[in-house]
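Narrative summary of target 7.
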Amino acid sequence: MPEIETERLLLRMFRPDDLNNLAGLFSDPEVMRYVGEGDTVNREETGKALQSIIKHWETHGFGRWAAVDRVTHEFVGFGGLRSLLGTPEVVYHFATAHWGKGLATELARASLRFGFEERSFDRVVAIAKPLNTASIHVMKKLGMHYQMHASYYGLEVIQYEIRREEFKPGNSVFRLRSEPPAVAGG
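Modeled conformation, tokenized:
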């Protein structure tokens, strides 16, 4: 499965031992404020979500990565692409300590580039609750444009989209790795 290096992040496949990291993220009320019904998620449900994230790659050939700081190797969040009723959707979630640093834009730009260049998607969407101005700001920075108000799974959202011919990767750092790096002495 592919991994991506950006300027500040390593986007790697989730592993079962990421449960504690993901549970920490899902238990933060601020992180979960605009996700689903806005409720935190217990460890058991987080385990199910982790298995679903891992399985999504097997089923669809694309998915969400764990986002790790390239210098400190700290888990800072996750994101990537998922299937929204058959349409690729870009998503991003970060620990509050890492908000406001441009990491969501960096991760999302790499995810779009992967989707358009490696998976040849014609279009990718993103959705957010109308009050989630930070997420909508990221969508606009990516060059996405408003498409419509929509309802998914009983939630009212705003949907943005971008087409392959509209996407501009800019000067983003993007290195695709199909295999994990070799470990010295191993």
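Confidence is low (pLDDT under 50) at residues 181-186.
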